[in-house]
């Protein structure tokens, strides 16, 4: 039988969460203070994290070489690899893509520098609700989730409305602009391959405004003194269309595959792509939005991950999305119902990462 330890009645969780938020120091500040035990607002129930060690012997997510993506013969092979990876894993790693290594290294270094600035320099950017589209914070769902996780982040809405450039901290401004330009281009290339994999015109995702929103995230996972009691980022699926991920070499990302957690080993110079809930629905289940999480960092070296979320663009309230009509057949009827913008936004933003995924909610 499981022993459930009741929290002492004196524990006012909300108060402790508020104090952490108001201190504006993030988990980086806690880590730097030299604590050897983590505050209880970060402690996850053991039964939820007892499977933190990867149990899979799988060699990991598929690796896809994008060299010669524009030669007709190669393209057919690459499209099939992308389709198969998006269908089974929901995750793949691309190499020999169009983005120079220097761009990857520079954005990673700039985000590291931002988070490693003295507290006084960072605190003025700390916000709970992103008012300007440029945010520095810890745990975007701090007040919605039941337990906090061991990461800080910056985020910037890059498109369709461009950010006010002088609101982006100087320390990563130029690197972000350069990275975003490159990531947008790669997003278009991968979007074409994904469309072709569904038997659609290569421009279909773009023309349906499915790649129009781009949100940048600069995640920072500092050393955690008790990595077995918490996580870096809770398990979740990404709500949007697709994501480009650039983690540094510190391990931590895990992907669920065939009911087991698999460690992702990022290749130097590679980029990880994953499918979000929106694309699973639009593709009528052909592509999968797969659960992933990040372990709390047990290494002294911080873990940094650059994230670019692609999502549907400006969305007319009267417009509803659902499986593309081209993908609904007598053999494969619609797997999901149509949904409105309000439903989509509410599902994600009101409940945080703990919420039920859109895919579950809309399943027919
Ligand atoms: O830090 C990572 O590598 C993953 C981040 C992630 O999954 C997310 O922000 O949606
Ligand atoms: Fe994610």
What attributes does this structure have?
binds 2-oxoglutaric acid; alpha+beta; metal-binding; binds fe (ii) ion; 364 residues; eight-stranded mixed β-sheet; globular; Jelly Rolls; 30% helix
Structural class: alpha+beta
CATH superfamily: B-lactam Antibiotic, Isopenicillin N Synthase, Chain
The number of helical elements comes to 11
CATH topology: Jelly Rolls
Number of strand segments: 12
Task: Break the fold down into its secondary structure elements and pairings.
Blueprint: H1 13-23, H2 26-32, H3 46-49, E1 63-65, H4 72-88, E2 91-95, H5 101-115, H6 119-123, E3 134-138, E4 152-159, H7 170-197, H8 204-207, E5 213-221, E6 231-236, E7 242-247, E8 253-257, E9 260-263, E10 271-275, H9 277-282, E11 292-295, E12 303-311, H10 341-349, H11 358-362
Bound molecules: 2-oxoglutaric acid and fe (ii) ion.
What can you see in these coordinates?
The structure is a single chain. This protein has 364 residues and is α+β, with helices and mostly antiparallel strands. It has one domain (13-362): B-lactam Antibiotic, Isopenicillin N Synthase, Chain (Jelly Rolls, Sandwich). Helix content is 30%, strand content 19%. The chain has eleven helices and twelve strands. It has helices at 13-23, 26-32, 46-49, 72-88, 101-115, 119-123, 170-197, 204-207, 277-282, 341-349, 358-362; strands spanning 63-65, 91-95, 134-138, 152-159, 213-221, 231-236, 242-247, 253-257, 260-263, 271-275, 292-295, 303-311. It has an eight-stranded mixed sheet. The longest helix has 28 residues, at 170-197. Fe (ii) ion (FE2) binds next to loops. Residues 206-312 form the Fe2OG dioxygenase domain. Belongs to the iron/ascorbate-dependent oxidoreductase family. This is Fe2OG dioxygenase domain-containing protein. It comes from Fraxinus pennsylvanica.
């Amino acid at each position: 039988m499981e022993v459930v330890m009741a929290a002492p009645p004196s524990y006012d969780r909300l108060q402790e969460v508020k104090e952490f938020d108001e201190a504006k120091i993030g988990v980086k500040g806690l880590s730097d203070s030299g604590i050897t035990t983590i505050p209880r607002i970060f402690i996850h129930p053991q039964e939820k994290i007892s499977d933190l060690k990867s149990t899979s012997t799988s060699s990991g997510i598929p690796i896809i070489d994008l060299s010669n993506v524009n030669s007709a013969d190669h393209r057919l092979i690459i499209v099939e690899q992308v389709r198969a990876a998006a269908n089974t894993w929901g995750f793949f790693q691309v190499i020999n893509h169009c983005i120079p290594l220097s761009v990857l290294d520079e954005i990673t270094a700039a985000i590291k520098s931002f988070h490693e600035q003295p507290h006084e320099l960072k605190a003025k950017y700390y916000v709970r609700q992103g008012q300007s589209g440029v945010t520095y914070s810890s745990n975007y769902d701090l007040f919605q989730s039941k337990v906090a996780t061991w990461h800080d982040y910056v985020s910037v809405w890059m498109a369709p409305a461009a950010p006010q450039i002088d609101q982006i901290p100087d320390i990563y401004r130029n690197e972000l602009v350069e990275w975003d330009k490159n990531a947008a281009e790669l997003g278009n290339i991968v979007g074409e391959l994904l469309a072709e994999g569904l038997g659609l015109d290569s421009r279909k995702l773009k023309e349906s405004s499915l790649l129009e929103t781009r949100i940048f995230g600069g995640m920072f996972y500092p050393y955690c003194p008790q990595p077995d009691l918490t996580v870096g980022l809770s398990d979740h699926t990404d709500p949007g269309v697709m994501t480009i991920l650039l983690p540094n070499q510190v391990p931590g990302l895990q992907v669920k595959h065939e009911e087991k957690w698999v460690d992702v080993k990022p290749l130097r110079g590679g980029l990880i792509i994953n499918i979000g809930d929106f694309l699973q629905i639009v593709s009528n289940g052909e592509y999968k939005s797969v659960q992933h999480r990040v372990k709390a960092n047990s290494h002294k070296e911080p873990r940094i991950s650059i994230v670019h979320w692609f999502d549907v663009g400006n969305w007319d309230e009267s417009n509803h999305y659902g499986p593309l009509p081209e993908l609904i057949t007598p053999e494969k009827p619609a797997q999901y119902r149509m949904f409105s913008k309000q439903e989509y936004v509410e599902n994600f933003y009101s409940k945080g990462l703990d919420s039920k995924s859109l895919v579950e909610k809309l399943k027919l």
